[in-house]
Design goal:
heterodimer; A: mainly alpha; two-stranded antiparallel sheet; 4 strands; B: alpha+beta; Beta Polymerase, domain 2; 15 strands
């Protein structure tokens, strides 16, 4: 009973975080874009326009749900659900705090202690591409179809580089579990440099970062939905809540990848110098806040990059994925493995 | 460069009665029998030094009373020799056929289709002589004088033309299925209402066909039913990104026919505001080109100068987009008292935005990969297609109406014509950035010269309305006022082709008057019309993304393209 309650509580924490990411991020994105573009952005609804996302959500809920006449209704309905589900499930293997003791019982702040940890996460994250393919295929629209083709090619190409850089981060740890990755990164080098994967595996970190831009279809890799070319790509024919599920899915996978990047390369919930040994509530809260702060850095980077760069062309994108990122990721993996075997890491 | 001297002696090998010489008001005019037209055209283009390499414009005129009812007018220019020539080919109504010049100048393609559409003249040898501006269900030919301007036709879906561009077949073609995709007329990248039907091989466009005519507003027909002054608001809607330049172009043509001297204050203001309009237009064009490649932020950076220039135009004319600030003989109203201060303030603020965009883009690797070598066209080919303006200068051809046929004050200021040689999307972008800087240079020099004193419109009661207080108090002025409002300006019979450098190329007005108080025929030479006719040639073989990113940089404005 206690375990069930604890798991439920942990899941509740994650769900709250992930579900509130979308409205918050939409606001950040719009205000951030406005800041970069020398405009004001939404500032009417609520203080600083903070409730704009709420208003948008209400609007989307009440919009007419349109489906094209010849669409494949089953896949058409399934696709937006599939966009959200993987993004909502990947968190199960990510730890958000130290092992704590509640009412005399040890609790690890990790929903699933599966030994396959990171592998499970990658597998779940890869499911996202199915939703895009289904959406593009079922909508009976040529632009959607092209968007879907682009999306699948792009995600498959970049997933390789992404996975290889994740593997490299796991090599020195010797475990697939992400809580082990975090505990491996505790401590410092020479007393001041945090013992984070970021420093020895900087190449891997860059590959991961670039690949996650491509995985989330964000500029400069937003080709599946390039609005000037494909109208809106795979979700051209979607409206109302179905559309907003895609929208949420995109922001949630951004959040997931940001959290994953913080866990793999920036020490996760741990920050050297912070005390995690106190009351369990404080410890868990500190862990969660540290993790969120680190992830927020990545999320802001996503926004910043989006409003700065033009977009790639499709062949250039694939060339970058296969000819630059993949060899880099492999080289990084070999390097890290060599360093680990020789005992440097 | 002189344009009124006959650049070529009359070719001798043609029969004596096949060409008649006329000395036009603006340029020599040859009346040519249609039998020798193709031979003559080849002869005229033959000389590499003085040959007429550019077919500026091709239009029809209807004279119902003449024995040979129609006349097709060709305007030629020689970019290297600097000459201009007008050819007129009479065509009888019962045999409305003349040879197509598409083999000599590729740019004749759409122009000939337009004449076919508007007058029903057939061009023998034209590969695709279909209606271009009106739709398939249209009956009759609207620019004929006996066509009632109020006549409407409804297009139903079953009559719609459905292009099926067929790519050239090769051996492996059977193995793949192709997809035909309809880009536009309502598509985010088609700024305006263009339609490109593309046959795709994966992401590659293997064949494409461009359809226009969705924004045709019968500008030329409407002009024939209004007085000369009333046409000015219509010109605003041509290139609506820089409507002031259109005003100037039209007014200059009529003023030359009227032989009216525009007061220096108006000329000074026209030059400054034309250059500001050019800056604005280039900002929009570069901005939309960038937004199509995903760089939205630059779009807003470039829209800020535009917004501020709109403020200036609003202070002058009361309108922002469609200014109608010119009048025949001068300006509609005097300049605002703070005109110079406003201009100076703009000169201070605009360069910062341009610099920002240049820094973000010109050395950006992603942009370079997207733009360098994309939709490239060589100078000679571009001229053959009838290109002018920044797009032509990006292909290495040094031609600018402001310098080569100077008007207003352009020959009194010191400025350069930027020329780039790549002919691709990137160089079109860079030409515009450089031209913005040159325009600001021109404005600065004119401001330093100081605003000329004097009237803002010519003091001629046959052309300019008398001021209100005079019209209300003096009998004579009131009569003039009444005559101008009711009958309009009486322009003496004659014809003229007068061009200004529009923001996207040579904007020409071929104006015919029969002395009736209304234009007999006005033909606009829209600079983007020949440019857009090249679009299929530019995008075939590239990807969809290339097509999208190149369209923005061509600065095709639907309002002007389709009139």
């Amino acid at each position: 009973m206690f375990d069930l309650l604890a798991t439920g509580a942990k899941m509740a924490v994650w769900m709250t975080v992930l579900l509130s990411v979308t409205p918050v991020m939409v606001w950040v994105e719009r205000r951030g874009a406005a800041l970069i573009q020398d405009r004001l952005g939404p500032n009417r609804v609520g203080p600083l326009g903070l409730f704009q996302s709420l208003a948008d959500a209400v609007k989307l809920l009440f919009k007419e749900d349109i489906a094209t006449l010849e669409s494949d209704k089953f896949l058409y309905t399934l696709a937006p659900m599939l966009a959200v589900v993987p993004a909502l499930t990947t968190f199960v293997v990510i730890p958000f705090g130290p092992d704590i003791e509640v009412a005399g019982r040890p609790v690890s702040l990790l929903v699933s202690e599966a030994e396959t940890g990171a592998l499970l996460l990658l597998a779940l994250a890869s499911l996202g591409v199915y939703s895009l393919v289904m959406a593009g295929y079922s909508a009976n629209n040529k632009y959607s179809l092209m968007g879907a083709v682009r999306a699948s090619a792009q995600m498959i190409s970049y997933e390789l580089a992404l996975a290889l850089s994740v593997v490299a981060a796991l090599v020195p740890v010797g475990s697939l579990r992400l809580d082990h990755v975090v505990s491996y990164q505790q401590g410092t080098w020479w007393g001041f440099l945090p013992h984070w994967n970021l420093f020895p595996q900087f190449i891997g970190f860059l590959v991961f970062l670039i690949a996650s831009f491509a995985e989330t279809n964000r500029l400069p890799f937003d080709l599946p939905e390039a609005e000037s070319e494909l109208v809106a790509g795979y979700h051209t024919e979607y409206s109302s809540m179905k559309f907003s599920l895609f929208f949420m899915g995109e922001y949630m996978s951004m959040a997931t990848l940001s959290i994953l990047a913080s866990t793999l390369f920036l020490g996760g919930w741990h920050l050297p110098g912070l005390d995690y040994s106190g009351w369990w509530v404080t410890a868990a809260t500190t862990g969660l806040l540290v993790l969120m702060a680190k992830a927020a850095l990545f999320l802001l980077l996503f926004v910043w990059v989006r409003w700065t760069f033009p977009r790639f062309r499709f062949d250039q994108l694939l060339r970058l994925g296969w000819k630059v990122l993949l060899p880099l990721a492999i080289a990084n993996l070999v390097l890290v493995a060599a360093l680990t075997v020789s005992g440097v890491l | 460069m002189p344009t009124t001297t006959a650049p070529l002696p009359l070719p001798e090998r043609f029969p004596a009665d096949s060409i008649q010489l006329r000395e036009g008001l603006d340029q020599p005019t040859w009346i040519v029998r249609r039998e020798i037209l193709v031979d003559l055209a080849r002869e005229l283009t033959a000389d590499p030094e003085t040959g007429f390499d550019l077919l500026l414009d091709l239009c029809g005129v209807d004279y119902p009373d003449r024995e040979e009812r129609f006349e097709v007018v060709y305007h030629l220019a020689s970019l290297r020799g600097g000459g201009r020539l007008r050819l007129k080919v009479p065509v009888p109504e019962d045999d409305p056929v003349l040879p197509s010049l598409i083999d000599v100048w590729k740019g004749a393609d759409w122009f000939e289709r337009e004449v076919y559409d508007m007058f029903g003249l057939h061009f023998e040898g034209h590969p695709n002589l279909r209606r271009i501006l009106t739709h398939e269900a249209f009956q009759g030919h609207p620019l004929r004088k006996d066509y009632d301007p109020a006549r409407r036709w409804i297009l139903t879906e079953d009559k719609m033309y459905r292009p099926q561009p067929e790519p050239p077949m090769d051996a492996e073609d059977d193995m793949f299925e192709r997809m035909t995709i309809n880009i536009g007329p309502s598509h985010p990248a088609m700024h305006g209402t263009f339609r490109v039907v593309a046959t795709l091989d994966g992401e590659i466009i293997s064949a494409s066909e461009v359809e226009i005519g969705y924004l045709h507003r019968c500008f030329e027909k409407m002009a024939e039913t209004h007085t000369w002054q009333q046409v000015i608001p219509y010109t605003d809607r041509l290139n609506y990104c820089s409507s002031f330049i259109n005003n100037v172009g039209y007014c200059r043509a009529v003023e030359t026919l009227l032989n009216v001297e525009v007061p220096p204050r108006a000329v000074w203001a026209r030059t400054i505001l034309s250059e500001f309009s050019r800056v604005m237009d280039h900002c929009v064009c570069n901005g939309s080109s960038l937004v199509d490649s995903g760089a939205l932020t630059n779009f807003w950076y470039l829209f800020q100068p535009r917004e501020e220039i709109y403020g200036l135009l609003e202070a002058c004319s009361g309108a922002r987009l469609t200014v109608s600030y010119c009048r025949i003989g001068g300006l509609a109203a005097d300049l605002p008292p703070d005109f110079e201060a406003r201009c100076r303030a703009l000169l201070e603020t605009i360069p910062a935005f341009i610099d920002d965009v240049e820094k973000l883009i010109v050395s950006n690797r992603i942009w370079l990969d997207r733009a360098v070598g994309i939709a490239a066209i060589g100078g000679e080919e571009a001229v053959n297609w009838g290109w002018t303006g920044p797009c032509l200068r990006a292909s290495g051809v040094d031609y600018d109406v402001r310098r080569d046929n100077p008007y207003d004050l352009y020959d009194t200021v010191d400025w350069d014509v930027p020329v780039f040689h790549g002919g691709d999307v990137h160089d079109r972008f860079r030409v515009r950035i450089s031209e913005i800087r040159e325009s600001l240079k021109i404005i600065r020099q004119l401001l330093d010269r100081g605003m000329p004193e004097g009237p803002f419109i010519v003091d001629d009661p046959h052309v300019a309305l008398p001021p209100k207080e005079v019209a209300y108090n003096q009998m004579e002025a009131m009569i003039y006022h009444f005559k101008l409002i009711m009958d309009g300006i009486q322009v003496p019979p004659g014809e003229i082709y007068s061009a200004v450098e529009g923001a996207n190329g040579e904007l020409g007005f071929y104006v015919l008057s029969d002395g009736s108080g209304k234009p007999y025929r006005i033909k606009v030479r829209p600079p983007c019309f020949p440019i857009f006719s090249t679009f299929s040639r530019l995008i075939n073989g590239g990807t969809i993304s290339d097509a999208v990113v190149s369209l923005g940089g061509l600065n095709v404005i639907a309002g002007e393209l389709e009139r």
